Amino acid sequence: MTAVANTIFSAAQFNQFVRDNLNETAPALATSAGSHFAATGVNAIAERRLTGLTDLNSGTTTSTSFGDLTGAAIGPAITVETGPTALVIVHGQISNSGAGSARMAYAVSGATTLAAADNRGIGIIGAAGVTIVCSMGTHHGGGTALTPGSNTFTAKYRVSSGTGSFEDRRIVVLPM
To answer: Which of 98, 110, 123, 132 could connect to 162 by a Cys-Cys bridge, CB 3.0–4.6 Å?
Structure first.
């Protein structure tokens, strides 16, 4: 609508051209406290929310390839709606019975398929019998971009030798 001087501005015009436009703003579209909005395309946004999960149970592995723990539930794992980017944070208390490394990373499944890798995780090397608390964050974008959609981030574990023990395991995903 183009306003013209000295013409009547009806309630229907106000509702269509003012109220309805205000209902398309981020505050009007927000449904959850603590969420944020990410651009999903030209003139398009989606509400996103930071999600985290903690598993305080301990588990072990002797596998030299990333996989699940023995004696603990799989994961933790979080399923969220993402765009092409996300910030993922992993945390855990890690130890190894020998001088080898113990590592915690995450795999992505769903719209994106991405195997767990050392460069997207935490770990210790050569600290036999010592438990170390580790945390780190990874930003997916550029070369490790995600496929937009429903993506599941699942913690995975491995060692280079010995028995790795993992507890207080956490994963947090901030989808963009």
So the answer is: 98
